[in-house]
Amino acid sequence: MIRVRDEKKSVDFYRLALGLEVAARLDFETFTLIYLSNEESEFELELTVNKDRSEPYALGDGYGHLALSVDDLDAEHQRAADAGLNPGKIVTFNRDGPARSFLLPG
Asked: Residue 59: inside a domain, yes or no?
């Protein structure tokens, strides 16, 4: 679950960045839950919009991330760059074999 203030901007970002679409939207008196997913897995991302929230959410002082796997990392990196998402450089690290990744600023 990720708390967001701007539903449209957030849904648009996750659609463009990760190919996620709205699977369900539940509107309550003080908040709205938006579930995003795609046809490739059972994974869902829940966005929570608290209707009375006017200040940005603090991300805290810890590091957190959402990791997804893709068939072609280089192509996905290029797609993110072409979409203007400013992906970080692809990095390789080793633990029980090589792994490659990049970050998307959100």
From this structure: no
CB 82 within 8 A of CB 74: no
Q: Residue 43 CB: number of other CB atoms within 10 A? A: 12
Residues 45 and 74 in one domain: no
In a domain, 7, yes or no: yes
DSSP string computed for 31-87: EEEEEEE-TT-S--EEEEEETT--SPPP--SS--------S-HHHHHHHHHHTT--P
- The predicted-structure confidence for 2-48, as pLDDT tens digits, reads as follows 889 999 999 999 999 999 999 999 999 999 999 999 988 888 999 99
